[in-house]
Specification:
- The chain has ten helices and 18 strands.
- It is α/β, with parallel strands linked by helices and 351 residues long.
- It folds into two domains: 222 residues, TIM Barrel, CATH 3.20.20; 94 residues, Jelly Rolls (Sandwich), CATH 2.60.120.
- The strands form four sheets. Strands 7-6-5-4-1-12-11-10 form an eight-stranded parallel β-sheet.
- Strand 6, helix 4 and strand 7 form a beta-alpha-beta unit.
- It is elongated.
- The two termini are 32 Å apart.
- It comes from Parasedimentitalea huanghaiensis.
- Pfam families: Cupin_2.
- This is Cupin domain-containing protein.
């Protein structure tokens, strides 16, 4: 899955007043993980906000930043009533776990000592790691919400130490406002990270401070560090077929998993053969193809394709001159199948 980006509809540890407007922008941009805080908006609006997140196909997060036990317990109960998917933050685990038991809500509390508002992470790396290990050992704790960039310790070392010390996912929070920091978070072994203020205030490096541009820039950078960007561009079949003249000698044009996309020019009649384990797809790009089977002949015109199952004897015949054919078949497929023929090709060129 890769590193997860969670967009927080928050500023200074409060859900923003215009959260609904920003949510619409985030959903339109294809953001899949969206959260808010337990403070800033009334319960009714948080409930509607959560419903809109989930109806938009995203996973919802509520982060608890209340410092006193009573408020945190109330927020945990509110999380159930609101219907969030994941509860982030909070420190009163003994009180919260019984409340969440059996609800299906995944719980990621804060490790370490949390102080102030906005929240900061106090304590040494060793102390925070010890707290993280104790929390991760608890049944009902599904992961950790680490305020890494709100610690005065070495942040890179802190993140790596916590991730190495626990076997549950760790979400990083704080001032993560650049691709460089996202890459550092990924290298630490984290499962995800949150960004709120940087995007809402237009501070993330992007072509524009507009939220849509900010979110798309973050998503592009996350895809980049996850190595989920595609290097492929469109392939023009006419241009590819123009690069060769040989017939019955397939060229490799691409690959999808273990399936090869091959281009071949047929002229006249090939030979009867079958393939022991490979199915084949023949799609006619230009010309007309006849596929002979033992029980019938099939005509395949331009824009049509035919599938030949493995084990079925067949003989392709190009009608009316040269026929340009796209083949989709496993990488192990040899053009002559079980037959011995001078036109057998095992070392295919690429176009």
């Amino acid at each position: 899955m890769g590193l997860r980006f969670i967009f927080m509809l928050t500023r200074n540890d409060k859900t923003v007043e215009d959260a609904e407007q920003h949510l619409a922008t985030a959903l339109a941009a294809g953001v899949h993980h969206i959260g808010f805080k337990d403070v800033g908006l009334p319960f009714e609006r948080l409930t509607d906000l959560n419903a809109a997140i989930k109806s938009g196909g995203a996973t919802s997060y509520l982060e608890v930043v209340s410092l006193d036990k009573e408020s945190e317990v109330a927020s945990a109960k509110a999380a159930i009533d609101i219907g969030v998917d994941i509860l982030l933050g909070g420190t009163n685990v003994d009180e919260v776990l019984p409340i969440l038991k059996g609800t299906g809500i995944r719980y990621y509390p804060f490790p370490g000592r949390i102080e102030g508002h906005p929240s900061v992470l106090a304590g040494s790396i060793d102390e925070i790691v010890e707290s993280a290990q104790a929390l991760a050992a608890r049944d009902g704790v599904h992961g950790l919400d680490l305020l890494a960039y709100r610690s005065t310790e070495n942040v890179t070392g802190l993140m790596a130490a916590v991730c190495a010390a626990v076997d549950k996912p760790v979400i990083m929070a704080g001032s993560i406002g650049s691709r460089e920091r996202i890459e550092i978070v990924r290298r630490s072994g984290a499962a995800g990270f949150t960004i709120g203020t940087a995007a809402l205030d237009g501070d993330y490096p992007a072509d524009s401070p507009e939220l849509e541009t900010q979110l798309r820039s973050i998503q592009r950078d996350v895809a980049g560090v996850n190595k989920h960007l595609s290097s492929h561009t469109p392939t023009n079949l006419d241009a590819c077929f123009a690069t060769f003249t040989e017939t019955w000698s397939p060229r490799i044009a691409g690959q999808v998993n273990n399936m090869m996309i091959k281009l071949a020019k047929f002229e006249g009649e090939f030979l009867w053969h079958h393939h022991e384990v490979e199915d084949e797809l023949f799609m006619v790009h230009r010309g007309k193809l006849m596929m002979k089977f033992r029980d019938r002949d099939e005509i395949i015109n331009e824009g049509e394709f035919i599938i030949v199952p493995h084990g079925v004897e067949h003989c392709p015949v190009a009608l009316d001159g040269t026929c340009e054919v796209l083949l989709l078949e496993p990488a192990t497929t040899v053009n002559t199948g079980n037959a011995d023929d001078p036109r057998r090709v095992t070392d295919l060129a690429r176009v």
